[in-house]
Amino acid sequence: MLHSSRLSKLALALMVAVPLANAAGPAATPTPAAAPAATAPATVPATAPAAKPPLPLDELRTFAEVMDRIKAAYVEPVDDKTLLENAIKGMLSNLDPHSAYLGPEDFAELQESTSGEFGGLGIEVGVEDNFIKVVSPIDDTPATRAGIEAGDLIVKINGQPTRGQTMTEAVDQMRGKVGEKITLTLVRDGGQPFDVTLARAIIQVKSVKAQLLEDGYGYIRITQFQVKTGEEVGAALAKLRKDNGKKLNGLVLDLRNNPGGVLQAAVEVADHFLTHGLIVYTKGRIANSELRFNADPADASEGVPLVVLINGGSASASEIVAGALQDQKRGVLMGTDSFGKGSVQTVLPLNNDRALKLTTALYFTPNGRSIQAQGIVPDVEVRRAKITREQDQETFKEADLQGHLGNGNGGADRPTGSATADKKARPQDDDFQLSQALSLLKGLKVTRGN
To answer: Where is this region: Disordered (predicted)?
Structure first.
């Protein structure tokens, strides 16, 4: 699955599990458990044996010598198993930030996470300048309830500095029993450090949320891409139309702070809004890592005008959807630049319930753009801002005057305060980016006249 950092009990981002041995089968269930251990080697004629590079004997001797020296001289006894597992982790940690060795516990957590339930704090983390950085908090989790935001730096965990730690080391410190409390020291926007104490919990992530913002205008938020997210978005579109009573005038698709997820789910979501053309393709060093996904003619969205919200916490599978809709001119992207994770990780099971999470390919948008380390640039930049309302001044309208004439067409009077008397709180009232997206959809409705 695609994601911006290592998944753990408290850091969720589902990698795109690309089934290498079944590259032509995009309909295959993209779960980590389905990924084969390796691809079949090509048959090589006996008359032309494949030339293999010689083993680096000097380096192997050095490795054995280092291992012997550690066993003989380290201050505490270290067994061979520990040394070898650490060596494997070291091999992968120096490839790229997203390749990793998964022990039995990590592998089990990765498999469980595709169902949308795991234990932890509910944050996706990465490494930046030797600090642990919050890529995105997950909705309705201890992290969001504690006010943790994308971009926060975790400088201490229970009072222990994180600078210089690997992501694995930091995540292991943050693990623990459900219900136990943990204190994170955060730095936000270069300000002063502050502590946040929160309790670990079983995280049950709701992948898709949908509601009508107001008559004619729908809202779908995807918090992450799970195995059933595509199906859930299809159901959400049908429910929004039913609740509205007719075809929608506009829809906001919110991918902000979505750390990624299952590749097939991202393809299915994009396909709900597209009727033809390429959605995404991947390219890697081995032939079976090259996949292409195309849209089918069905249109669950009914061609409704679309605004897609993204920000710096929109990563991986989120960027696949945003890039496809942008390249196909299907919707207007609004917000700020996305995270920029354009690589594909394949989960390769090993013996003894272990696995490799290995970067095997880069993905590209329909127009051939690589998002890696660049991200998606929105069509309309709208930065986050707080909405403050000025106190309404006491004014009078014609309808407030005693003895005023009635409306010539029989319409009801609208005295001062009538428009807001029964107004209920709406998501867009305190979300500047969402309110701007809704305003754009209303403008399109007015100018297009449909």
So the answer is: 391-430
State yes or no: pLDDT of 36 exceeds 60.
Answer: no
Residue 98 half-sphere exposure, CB side, CA atoms within 13 Å?
Answer: 29
Exposure string for 133-161, b = 16+ CB within 10 A, e = fewer? bbbbbbbebbbbebebbbbbbbebbeeee
265 membership: H or E segment, kind and range: helix 263-271
Counting every residue, how long is the chain? 450
Contact 315, 338 (CB under 8 A): yes
Look at the block and give the residue holding tokens 């930046």: 128
Phi, psi values for residue 130, rounded to 5°: 70, 10
Backbone angles phi, psi at 87, to 5 degrees: -65, -40
What is the rounded distance in angstroms from the CA atom of residue 237 to the CA atom of residue 427?
18
Please, which residues have CB within 8 angstroms of residue 288's CB and are 6 or more apart in sequence?
20, 21, 23, 39
254 burial (CB, 10 Å; 0-12 / 13-18 / 19+) is buried
Classify burial at 390, counting beta carbons within 10 Å of its beta carbon; exposed 0-12, middle 13-18, buried 19 or more: exposed
**Under a CB-based contact definition with an 8 Å cutoff, are residues 201 and 179 in contact?**
yes
CA–CA separation, 94 vs 5, rounded Å?
Answer: 14
348 φ/ψ angles, rounded to the nearest 5 degrees:
-115, 105
At residue 78, does pLDDT exceed 60? yes
Q: How far apart are CA 89 and CA 12, in angstroms?
A: 20
Are 130 and 164 in contact by the 8 Å Cβ rule? The answer is: yes
Strands 250-254 and 217-222: parallel
Question: Do 319 and 376 meet the contact criterion of CB atoms below 8 Å apart?
Answer: yes
d(CA 375, CA 412): 51
Q: List active site positions.
A: 316, 327, 341
What amino acid occupies position 403?
A: G
CA dist 94 to 98, 172, 350, Å?
Answer: 10, 19, 20
The H-or-E segment that residue 126 falls in is strand 123-128
Extract the tokens encoding 401.
């005057």
Please write the tens of the pLDDT for every residue from 118-161: 667 888 788 887 889 988 887 788 999 999 998 999 999 999 99
Q: Which helix (H) or strand (E) holds 335?
A: strand 332-335
Confidence at residue 313, expressed as pLDDT on a 0 to 100 scale: 95
CA dihedral 127, 189, 341, 251 (to 10 degrees): 140
Mean pLDDT rounded to a whole number for the chain: 83
- Cβ atoms of 119 and 174 closer than 8 Å: no
What pLDDT, on the 0 to 100 scale, is given for residue 19? Answer: 32
* Token couple for 105: 């516990």
Q: Supply the pTM of this predicted model.
A: 0.71
